[in-house]
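task queued by scheduler; priority normal; single chain, no ligands, no partner chains; default sampling; output format set to structure tokens
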Amino acid sequence: MDMNKTIERINYLYHKSQDQELTAAEKTEQSQLRQKYLQAIKVNLCSQLEILKPQKNEGKYSYKPCNCGKHHH
């Protein structure tokens, strides 16, 4: 299941839970989908943080995500 479908299903189960009690299977599915979503966010964040490298500039450290020259860092 791709992430958009995962989010759609999480939202569907949330809205359904507001109208009626979810079954045990639906509660389990909701929990598993939420964990999958959170894991994807953590992986994405970690990969973005790995790109950042400290650069020493005039005695101060700054973090530059790229060397493209198009951004003011």
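post-processing summary
- Residues 40 and 46 are 10 Å apart (CA to CA).
- DSSP finds two helices and two strands in the chain.
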